[in-house]
Amino acid sequence: MVYSILIVDDSLPMRSVIKKTLGAAGYGGSEILEAENGQAALEMMRHNWVDVVLTDYNMPVMNGLDFILKAKKEEMLRDIPFIVVSTEGNKDRIAQFMESGAAGYVTKPFTAESIRDVMVPIIGEVDDEDTIDESDDDLDF
Q1: Which of 22, 68, 86, 115 is 20 to 30 A off residue 141, Cα-Cα?
Q2: What long-range pairs does 127-136 form, CB within 8 A, spacing at least 24?
Q3: Residue 74 to residue 138: CA distance in whole angstroms
Q4: Domains annotated on the chain, with CATH
Q5: Residues sharing a CB contact under 8 Å with residue 35, sequence separation 6 or more, in sequence order
Q6: What region holds the Response regulatory domain (predicted)?
Q7: Taking the model in full, what pTM does it have?
Q8: In what order do the strands lie in the sheet with 82-86?
């Protein structure tokens, strides 16, 4: 199945790593949208179909937590699942993300398998012919 995935991170190289990792996790055929902060992402979501959002926490203009909270207040956006991809890995911070409405959390550094393990229960299984290719060392950062 083809999904529309929005990657929200202020780092262009990190967005590229996430995009490549999604491909290795079996989501390579998906439409990938990108935004550099929560404010830009909200605007993009208002004008584009999005199946799932992968967002960082630490971003300028609007951080990931504020982004999730604002999106969950908008009727057209509130049912879109959010997965936080961040270095903020302490239990209190993760609990805060989940209480804000995040559907999942992935700690950086991540692998294709860890991305897939969080995404599959949220948006569904990828096509059977798609397999995880962990042989590319570039995917572990």
Answers
A1: 68
A2: 127/1, 127/26, 127/29, 130/26, 130/27, 130/28, 130/29, 131/26, 132/24, 132/25, 132/26, 133/24, 134/24, 136/24
A3: 37
A4: 4-110 (3.40.50.2300)
A5: 6, 7, 8, 41, 43, 44
A6: 4-123
A7: 0.88
A8: 31-35, 4-8, 52-55, 82-86, 104-107
* Pair of tokens at residue 27: 């989501």
